[in-house]
Amino acid sequence: MERRALLGLAAVAAATAATSPAAASDGGGSASGNSYLGLPTVTGNVRRPGGGLGVMTVEVGVDTPDAALRTRVAQSAPRLRAAYAQVVQQHAASLLPGAPPDIERLVSSLQTATNTLMGRAGARLLIGTVMVV
Asked: Most buried by CB count within 10 Å: which residue of 9, 31, 61, 83?
């Protein structure tokens, strides 16, 4: 099992090394790749139509072009994750059974939590997938 992981890691490292010189000579496309910080999936409990419990899953990340703010975002990742978990749980709890989530309201609330924790605007929240199962 560990041998497979090492082989996979070696393949990824080789592919990264092969593309690094091309990206360095490109001249400007590498800045956006460094500004993104992906966070672990955030979940909240929902009521299903039959009365059972379900799960609302939200994939989030933060894009921060400003280097100083990017450092602060990286250092505040646990606090961001806790704030996102609270927001997602509140939205999941307010869902009616069988109703789809209001993505616009969810994104607005998550962006507000981001701006509040960072103390200023500049860190942009990105949503990957919102799924209710």
From this structure: 83
